[in-house]
Amino acid sequence: MDEPLHQPPRLAAHREPAPLRFLRAAKRLIVFSIAMIVLASVLFAGLLLYLRVQPMPPLSFSQSTELLDVHGSLIDSFHDGQNRHIVDLSSISPNMLKATLAIEDKRFYRHFGIDPRGLARAIWVNIRSLDANSQGASTLTQQLARNLFLTHEKTWSRKIKEAMYALQLEMAYTKDEILAMYLNQIYFGHGAYGIEAASNLYFGKRASELTLAESSMLAGVMKSWKYYSPHMDYERSRERQKLVLTTMAKQGVITDAEAAAVYAEELNLLPLTDKESSKAPYFRDYVRSVAVGKLGIDERLYDSGGLRIFTTLDLHAQENAEAAVAKYLEPHEELQAALVSIDPRNGHIQAMVGGRNYEENQYNRAFAETRQPGSSFKPILYLTALQQEGFTAVTRFMSEPTVFTYDEGRKTYSPQNYGNKYPNKLVDLRYAISKSDNIYAVNTMMQVGPERVIETAKSLGITSEMEPLPSLALGTYPVSPYEMASAFATIAGGGIRREPVAILRIEDMYGRVLYEAKPREQRVVAPQYTYILTHLMQSVFDDGGTGRRVSDLIKRPVAGKTGTTNTDAWMVGFTPELATAVWVGYDKGRAVTSVEAHTASPIFAEFTERTLSAVPPKLFEVPEGVTTVYIDPATGLLATADCPNPRLESFIAGTEPTESCTGHGAEPLPQDAPQQEQERNWWDDLKRWWNS
Known about the structure:
The structure is a single chain. The chain has 23 helices and 21 strands. The chain is elongated, with a radius of gyration of 40 Å. The strands form 7 sheets. A 5-stranded mixed sheet has the order 2-1-5-13-14. The protein has a 5-stranded antiparallel sheet with strand order 7-6-18-17-16, with helices on both faces. By secondary structure, it is α+β, with helices and mostly antiparallel strands.
């Protein structure tokens, strides 16, 4: 039997040692990981490069425009839907910054817009729940991106866009800039956008002044004002505040003891109220008309561009004006008033009242060109006359019923004095001004010529249309209170016409100057003439003058002129610091009674004295070229020692009387007497002011 063929034995399978196999696998994993990291880095770098060149939606913060008075105090703020006042990060309390970062994004300064840790945690939770809404991981930058560019819907696509916009924001801005944008943008409820508006709404202070207790409360409100506003649910807001403080303590920002002490502080929370009315609503509307209508400021920019409008208004003067108008109109239903006050030294409008109640009627009567100024127009006539050769303070006319002819004798005009009262004798200019003598005024008009009076009126700032008729002497052509205040400010300013100014400067939200006032100044009358007129107008407040009823209210040198028609009552006057026009009447042409007409003067007097209460009385400056002598009122000649009623009167040097009154048989008064009289008057004025 044949033997089986020999088969060689099978070789045992060769196996690598386990450590070697592990090392080889680890190597492959490392290579793969490095490749993935490189790929991810390349992809991320590509994403960043892509985002870098992609334009972001434009940043646009609607914020409130502020109207400020001459001292920088807030008159009013207004906005187009969003009450917001943007501030720099340096103008926000560090307490607010710390509280915000602690509760919203503690790693804000360490991530690049997206927090990988938070993102990984959120993705894991969302995957487990199969719900994209279950867990959020938005950084502060992502929240800003969402609020600026996106809706608040919770979808994967929105979250991806949010992350991309966050990266773009981080590349375009510094961390501090992003934090500032966030705090200026976030909504705190009740119409307050941004930390400055919220600080004012909740606590009545600026964001820079917030305490830690107040900051922790507002940091809690940011999550959802509907749930955590103290005005919606106080207890819930307190719980949220406690969470903010506890979180700050856990992060080591404050200690546990500090957190407890801050939480125990009592917050001075302001109640929610309706928006207060503007402190100067008629002036506010006027400023808007100037800014938009004359300066060309875009309306949208004006309403919501965060402008800062620096005005000439003095809130102290404005409050006095509103109080005086309210006080003296209160007994008279439906009676209206207007007041305009201008600083004659610079043309600044310091106060403006356009009616008794802005809420009921927004029509600004300060610019109503339908009201006759009556006798308050006469100083313009007399200023014209004083500039004519031969006309002085002692020029005399017969005051008696008179028929004047004009238009080459074809027409007549028969004015009457108030109450048909006539002295039936020669009277001079001081008498005519203090008593408001109409016959003297028309005599002056006929001598000077109405065309010249119209020229003077226009040079002083009156733009209303007038016709060259004798009745112009009695203020029969309508002018506005604004025009009258402007004209009298020119007289008070020594004949220099300073264009009235309401807006000094307009700045945009970045502090760039968009407009700066450069008002025009022009000398239109020599100061000697305005001084002589001013000296004469002071007699309106003397015994027997038309303004005598308020003389006890006035504690300083004041020049003025009353005016009354059937439908209008005026007091227009000035001190060296203020020129003010007050009008009183009805809107529908209803006649004013004598009692109602007498409200204009006390409004003027009380406003002037209250506004200047801290200012010592000041004499009107006497310019060079003016001489002052005693005259005999009965003759207009130089007074002698025996004259029964000598009167101090001012003249352009060289026009004063040179002949003495001989009817009393005595020598002229010494030439130094006028100076003594001025010093006595100044001392009397000072004592009256001091004792008031």
